Amino acid sequence: MLRFRPATDALGPVDDLLAVGQLIDDAMRPGHFFVAPDLHLTWVAAKSETIRWEIFRGRLVEAAQTRQEKTFLSWHILEADATEPTISVKLDVHERCIHVTRGLLCYVWEGHEVGGVIESREVVKWTRELVGTIMLADFTDREPLRDELICLIWQAIVGTSRLPLTSVEAPLPAFSFGQLHYVYRDDAGTSPMMSWQDLASCWSQPDLARAERAKLLEFVLRRGTWAALFFSTAIGSQSMSLPLWRAMFNSVSLSPFTQFVDNALFMINIGAPQHEDAIDFHGDLLCKLCRHLTAFDLVTFHHRGANYPDGLLLDTAIKRYMNHASFSELFLGAGLKARMRRRALRQGCMLRRHYEGLLVPDMPTSPGENARVAPASHPRVPDEQLTQANRRRRQLFTDEPLRELVANLGENAIRLATSFEIRSRFRAAFEQSIRDLEHLDERVEMGLGLFIDRPLGYAKAIGEPDLTPMLAHEAFSPSIARQRWQELKKLCAELAIPCDAERLDLLFEHGPWPTGLPHAEVRECPRPTAALCDVRKVADDFVILRTMPVGLRDMLDQFDLRERLPFPDVRLCTPEFDKAGQPVLVLYDTKLRQRVEIEVDASQGYACRAGVELPKPGLRVRG
Fold this sequence. Notes:
There is one protein chain. The protein is about 35% helix and about 20% strand. With about 625 residues, it is an alpha+beta fold. It has three domains: about 1-195, no CATH class; about 255-440, no CATH class; about 450-480 and about 490-620, no CATH class. The strands form seven sheets. It has a five-stranded antiparallel sheet with strand order 2-5-6-7-8. The chain has a four-stranded antiparallel sheet with strand order 12-13-15-14. The protein is globular and about 75 Å long. The model has no long low-confidence stretch (mean pLDDT about 90).
C-alpha cells in the first residue's frame, strides 16, 4: 500500500469513532500549521453541523445547486470574516468516512431576481472544494488512517497535483504568498508556528516525506530571501541538496507569479556547493523548460498565452545563465558536460527570442486563477485580456530584447574582467553551441517536446478529478526543429555571430532523424485533459521517442509488474483501447516492437493513497 510517510507503530482498530475523532483532533492541532502574522485564523474542534452537501463525480456540487443535506462532526480552521473554513475535516459518523475540504474567496456568478426576471451578477464569496475522502472501511488500523489524513490536510494547502490543471490541484493562495503551511510534527504545540526558526525545526523531523521537504523548501522561499538565508543557515548543507531543489521545481506551481523564482535562483547562485553545480542546475532547468514549451507552447496552450509564468521563469533563468557563460571557461571545450551547458545556453536564448513581442495580459493568469481573490499586489486582470489578444497591452521581453542583454553583458561586472572580455566569452560559447548542431542529439533537441499523460485515468468520467500516476513522453518533430533552426539563424545574424548555415541547412533538411512511434498510432484521450495525443495539436510529424523511465518504473512497481514482463527494458508505454472499449497500456521494447498489453481494470473505481489514485482491481498482463 502506498504511504505518505514511513509506517510507525499500530494505533488500534478504526471501529472506535471516539478514537478516530481524537486522531482528527491531533492532526488539526494548531502547532502543525505555520501562520504568517498578517493571517488571522481560528480553530474550531468537533462541532456538529448540517450543511448542503452533494458529491458528483468526485467534486462538490455548489450549495445553491443542491437540496441534499448532511450532518457532520467537523473540525475547522477559519479566517477572520470568512463564511467557509479555510481547511475543514468532516467526520460522517453514519457513512463512516472523513472528508477534507478547503475554502477560497472567489469571484462567482449568482442568480438574482429583478422585477420578476432572473438575472445574473458577479459577487465575491467563499467557495468550498473537496480535497479528498477517506472511507474508514478501507483501513483496519488507525495508523495508516492517520497517514492518509495528514496527506489530505497537507494537499489542501499545497494542492493535489504536481502539475495543476484544475483549481483543487493548485495551492491555496495563502501558500502561494507565503502565509500558510502544514507540517505534521510529533511535538506540535497548541499555538501555530510563526517564525523561520519554527520552520527550521520542522526539517529535523526524520519521517518527513521527500515531497514534504520539497514543499517546505518552496514555502520558505515564498516567505522571502531573508527567511531562506536564515533557514539554510539553521539546517546547514541539507538546504542545498540539488536533487531536492530539482524536485521542488518539478512540482512548483508558478501561478500566481510571485518573487519565488527570483528568490530560488538567487539562493542557488549563492548556496550551491560548487560554482559548477549552480551552472548545471540552471542549465538543466532551462533545457526542461524549453522541452515543456516545445510541447505546450504559450500560444496553443496556456490559455492562448494568458498564463505565461513559464515565460517569466525563462527570462529570469536565461539572464542568470548568460552571466555564467560570460565568466566561465566551463562552457568551452569538446567534453559532453561543456556541450550540455552550451545546449542550455543556445536553447534558452533561442526560445526567449522566439517569444519576444508576444502579446500577453498585464499579469500571467488563467480563467480559474483570475476568479480567485488575490492580495492587492496581484490585481485582477480584465477578462477581455484573457480571451482577446488584441486587448492585451503587454509585450513579452520588449523592454529588454535579447540583443540588448548581450550588448549589456558585463556592465555591472565586479570580477577582474572587462565588459569586452565578458561579452567575448559569451559569444565564444554561443558560437560553439551553433557548431554543436553537427551532432544529431543537438539537432534533435531543437524539436524535442515533453508531453504528459495519465493513462490509468482514461476510464474516468469527464470532469472527474484524476490523480492517477503521471507519465512523461519525449516526442520529436522534424518540422519544429527546422523552424527553430531558421529562427536561430536570424538570431545569429542579429548578434553578428557566424554560423556555417549552408552545411547545417543540409543537415536540418535531410536529417537523419531518430525513429519513433508515429503520432497516428496514439489514441485520442476520451477526456478533455492533457494527454499524449496533444502532439497532434502542435505539429503533424511528431514521433514518440520514449516514455521517461522513472515515472514508468514507479507506476509498474505499484503493481509489481516489472519482474513479470517477458522483456527487460521498456522503451515506450502508450494508452490504447481493446475491442470491448476497455483501456489498456501497450508496452514497446527498445526496438519499438509491441510486446505486452496490460489491461486497466477500473470496474470497481479507484482507491487513493498518499495522493495517488490506482484502479482498485489493479492491472492485468495479457497473454
